[in-house]
Amino acid sequence: MSKTVVLKCGGSTVHQLSDSFFQSLNALIENNWKVMIVHGGGPDITNMLKALNIETEFVKGQRKTTEAVLEIAEMVLAGKINKHLTNLLQQKGLNSIGISGSDGEMLQAEFLDKENLGLVGKVTSVNRSVVSLLMENGYIPVVAPLARTVTHDTLNVNADLAAAAIAQAVGAQKLLFVTDVPGILDESKQLIKEITPSKIQSYIEDEVITGGMIPKVQSAMTTLSDTLKEVMIVSGQQAFIENDDFKGTKIVREQEVSST
Ligand SMILES: Nc1ncnc2c1ncn2[C@@H]1O[C@H](COP(=O)(O)OP(=O)(O)OP(=O)(O)O)[C@@H](O)[C@H]1O
Ligand SMILES: [Mg+2]
C-alpha cells in the first residue's frame, strides 16, 4: 500500500535546509513514501514588505492581509520561495513541480475573520486530484499556501493550517512540520520526544508553547486521526531520520503514547 507524507517547510528554514535533511528525505522516498511539500514564507514576505514600505501586522499569529500585502505575499510565496524550493529539490535529483494552492482549485477557502485579518483564508475543501496526479507520476508537488474563494478571490492561508488540511485530504499517514528548532522545547528548553494534546494544551496556557509553534500544534491536534496517527515537529537543519527512527517531537493521541 502506498504511504503518503506531507512535509511543511517553514519559511524560517527554507533557505537553510541541510544536506542531512535531504538525506532523510531521500530515505523516505527509498522506503516507498510518496512525498509532498507545502511551504511557508514569513521572513521573505516581511523583508519584501519592508523594502516596499508596506506596513504589516500580526493578529494572533496570523498576518493581517490587505490587498497590497496579498499582492506581495503571492509574489513571494508562489514565485520566489516556490521556485527556490523546487529548484533545490531538482538539484538533489528529486523531480518536483511547484504549484500554488490556488491553481486547479486545489485549496478552497472562506474568509477566516475578514474584519480583523483581511484577506486570510480558512481552508474549506481540498481538491486532491492535482497533487495525486503529480505524486502518482513520481513528482514531489511543492505547494504555496494560497487559496481561492467560491467567487475566485485569492486568499493568504497560514501554511501550517494549509499543510494540515492537505494531509487530511490526501489521507496522509504522516505530517512533518520542518522548522528552525529541533522540535517542541519544554520550560527548561529540553527537547520533548513525545507529547499528547492535553500536555500541549497546558504548555500553551503556561506560555511554554508560543508564537509560530501554536498553529503547528493546533493543526496537529485537529488533524490526528485513525489514518494520520502522528504529526512531528522536526528541524530542517539536521537529519530527521536517524537509525530508522524519526528525530524531533512526535505529537500523538492520548491512547497512542508509546510504551518505551
Ligand atoms: N515551546 C517551543 N518550542 C520550540 N519552539 C517554539 C516554542 N514556542 C515557540 N516556539 C517558536 O516557534 C518557532 C517556529 O515557528 P515559526 O512560525 O517561526 O517558523 P515556521 O513555521 O517554520 O516558518 P513560517 O511561519 O515562515 O512558515 C521557533 O523558531 C520558536 O521561536
Ligand atoms: Mg510559522
From TrEMBL:
Compartment(s) of residence: Cytoplasm
Catalyzed reactions: N-acetyl-L-glutamate + ATP = N-acetyl-L-glutamyl 5-phosphate + ADP
Pathway terms, separated by semicolons: Amino-acid biosynthesis; L-arginine biosynthesis; N(2)-acetyl-L-ornithine from L-glutamate: step 2/4
Stored CDD domains: AAK_NAGK-like (cd04238)
EC number(s) stated in the UniProt entry for this protein: 2.7.2.8
Keyword Secreted: no
Annotated positions binding substrate: G41, G42, R63, N156
Keywords in alphabetical order: Amino-acid biosynthesis, Arginine biosynthesis, ATP-binding, Cytoplasm, Kinase, Nucleotide-binding, Transferase
A GO MF label: acetylglutamate kinase activity
Annotated site residue numbers, Transition state stabilizer: K8, K216
EC class of the enzyme, as a word: transferase
Aspartate/glutamate/uridylate kinase domain segment(s): 3-234
Function recorded in the entry: Catalyzes the ATP-dependent phosphorylation of N-acetyl-L-glutamate.
Family that this chain belongs to: Belongs to the acetylglutamate kinase family. ArgB subfamily.
HAMAP family reported for this sequence: ArgB (MF_00082)
Name of protein: Acetylglutamate kinase
Gene that encodes it: argB
